Amino acid sequence: MSKALEVTTQSFEQEVLNNDTPVLVDFWAPWCGPCKMLAPIIDELVGDYQGKVKIVKVNVDENQEIASKYGIMSIPTLILFDKGQEKDTITGFMPKKKLAEKIDSNL
């Protein structure tokens, strides 16, 4: 079970767009190999960034509306939102250190 909150089409606006804290959204699917490799890193980041960045996951198979709205063409894709605005997008697997550097550069 992931430590990141699962967000759906119904909860996306409240959990991501209307949040005062920066939110990192992990767009993923259960069948995606690189997504599975990224999952433990995402779980570690949840702890590392507690209180600084909210980290959530969106299953693109179950929430195609959101994936379509943000132009998700390949997964994993991570989008960092700040006050409802897209700040940065990361596509594909990235080691934890590089991912943390990307997040830090946007805080």
TrEMBL record:
Sorted alphabetically, which PROSITE patterns does this protein's record hold?
A: THIOREDOXIN_1 (PS00194), THIOREDOXIN_2 (PS51352)
Q: What are the residue boundaries of the Thioredoxin domain, all occurrences included? A: 1-107
Family, similarity comment: Belongs to the thioredoxin family.
| Site description Deprotonates C-terminal active site Cys, residues in chain | D26
Q: Where is this site: Contributes to redox potential value?
A: G33, P34
Provide this UniProt record's keywords sorted from A to Z. Disulfide bond, Electron transport, Redox-active center, Transport
Q: Which residues form the active site?
A: C32 (nucleophile), C35 (nucleophile)
Keyword Disulfide bond on this protein?
yes
Can you list the disulfide-bonded cysteine pairs?
C32-C35
Q: Which GO terms describe its molecular function?
A: protein-disulfide reductase activity
* GO CC annotation: cytoplasm
**Superkingdom classification of source:** Bacteria
**Under what name is this protein listed?**
Thioredoxin
- Which PANTHER family does this UniProt record tie to the protein? GEO12009P1 (PTHR45663)
